[in-house]
Structure to design on (463 residues):
């Protein structure tokens, strides 16, 4: 089954051969990076012995085996692990962003959390997890797959706070200009689940934790992880936390949030004590980084090479303005066509990372869009007078910004086609309405849940 739901429509609304080239690469990449494929390749179950590399667990020696899956790839992870575990599976909870019809087949209880802001159903899912933990003991094993988005999807405030207070805090922080690491320093310290708080409660029951985590960080330059080797995993609900109360206090001061987030939360954080600190180490715990943003880029690069193209990875840590990043790719395409340079055509250039839509004035927002969609439109403008080029930009989890599209695909003819249809691409950028502009020219990419959450993927093809 194709990962790209509207592939034929996308191919037929531009230069078909060029679009087919990049869509082929995208299709193969998403299939390769689906967490179900990763788990299938990673885990070996021989009789009752589950092995990852040189590490093993005898499932027959366990009283109960619980499954905890959280994040935007939790659907796919839960399906695969339930199949792998078979009769060894006791019970499980999956907290997802979007419900798939196939999720009805899961034995695990499925809850649809809120993202980017928490909701009550995600909270109820967390409470159900805590019920499982209360019944756990020293002969039990918790297997957990954690992917991007758990800070919101698995929001469960400390008992002294209400869910509404946590939602307001998240909303204020997301609009403050703070980066995700700074925001998480606050969210983890007011949570019963995140920041390793869930793992600590499991540890206190004497149970064992096996954590399999997608690493969506773009800040670990030069680091490579072997998915079959135990790693120093941090972050999320099932691993140690590398933030402190002091970090959270600094965020509140720097972004002047004292009078914007609830006073109960400000007081608690500003008076944070050592005994209430999030866990920095765990025992009876094994954590693995099973995939990363560089892996996503490598999968796209390999797919392009298999198709016979000269292919190169520009970077796996592209950040900054999505609009400027799109213009940069347009300039790169121009340079290849005009000068050749290092790249012999036909060439594919791949990049990953996490670009952002920058909104200087909230009053300028007239519609919807996401970073990938804005990046695609910015490229279309920059490439309007090139003889050939095709570009796509997506969020690998299948939802770009607050929209139901994964991203957008454009080529050097997109600008002229839009002009003929009376669509002002530049205006759509200024008003942050890239979704409606790309929708009118049938250039939005729809995937639904992809089974991966490894930030952005950008593919440039110059034939």
């Amino acid at each position: 089954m194709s990962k790209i739901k509207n592939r034929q429509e996308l191919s037929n609304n531009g230069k078909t051969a060029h679009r087919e080239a990049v869509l082929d690469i995208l299709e193969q990449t998403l299939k390769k990076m689906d967490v179900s494929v990763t788990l299938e390749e990673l885990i070996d179950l021989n009789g009752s012995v589950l092995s990852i590399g040189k590490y093993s667990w005898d499932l027959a020696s366990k009283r109960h085996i619980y499954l905890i899956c959280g994040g935007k790839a939790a659907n796919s992870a839960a399906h695969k692990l339930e199949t792998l575990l078979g009769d060894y599976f006791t019970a499980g909870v999956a907290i997802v962003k979007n419900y798939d019809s196939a999720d009805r087949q899961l034995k695990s209880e499925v809850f649809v959390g809120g993202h980017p802001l928490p909701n009550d159903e995600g909270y109820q899912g967390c409470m159900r997890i805590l019920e499982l933990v209360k019944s756990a003991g020293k002969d039990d094993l918790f297997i957990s797959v954690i992917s991007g988005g758990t800070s919101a999807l698995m929001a469960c405030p400390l008992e002294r706070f209400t869910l509404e207070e946590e939602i307001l805090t998240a909303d204020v922080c997301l609009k403050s200009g703070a980066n995700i690491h700074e925001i998480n320093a606050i969210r983890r310290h007011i949570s019963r689940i995140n920041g390793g708080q869930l793992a600590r409660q499991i540890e206190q029951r004497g149970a064992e934790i096996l954590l399999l985590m997608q690493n969506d960080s773009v800040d670990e330059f030069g680091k490579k992880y072997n998915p079959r080797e135990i790693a120093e995993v941090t972050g999320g609900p099932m691993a140690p936390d590398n933030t402190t109360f002091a970090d959270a206090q600094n965020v509140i001061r720097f972004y002047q949030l004292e009078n914007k987030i609830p006073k109960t939360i400000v007081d608690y954080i500003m008076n944070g004590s050592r005994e209430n600190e999030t866990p920095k180490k765990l025992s009876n715990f094994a954590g693995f980084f099973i995939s990363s943003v560089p892996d996503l880029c490598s999968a796209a690069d390999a797919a392009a090479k298999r198709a016979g193209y000269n292919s190169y990875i520009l970077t796996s840590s592209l950040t900054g303005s999505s609009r400027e990043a799109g213009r940069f790719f347009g300039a790169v395409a121009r340079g290849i066509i005009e000068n050749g340079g290092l790249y012999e055509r036909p060439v594919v250039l791949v990049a990953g990372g996490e670009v952002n839509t920058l909104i200087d004035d909230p009053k300028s927002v007239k519609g919807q869009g996401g970073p990938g969609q804005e990046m695609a439109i910015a490229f279309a403008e920059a490439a309007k007078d090139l003889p050939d080029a095709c570009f796509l930009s997506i969020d690998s989890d299948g939802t770009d910004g607050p929209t139901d599209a994964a991203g957008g695909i454009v080529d050097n003819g997109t600008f002229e086609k839009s002009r003929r249809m009376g669509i002002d691409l530049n205006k759509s950028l200024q008003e942050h309405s890239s979704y409606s502009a790309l929708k009118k020219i049938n250039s939005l990419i729809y995937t639904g849940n992809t089974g991966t959450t490894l930030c952005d993927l950008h593919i440039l093809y110059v034939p």
Observations:
- The CA atoms of residues 322 and 375 lie 5 Å apart.
- The mean pLDDT is 94.
- The longest strand covers residues 310-321.
- DSSP finds 17 helices and 15 strands in the chain.
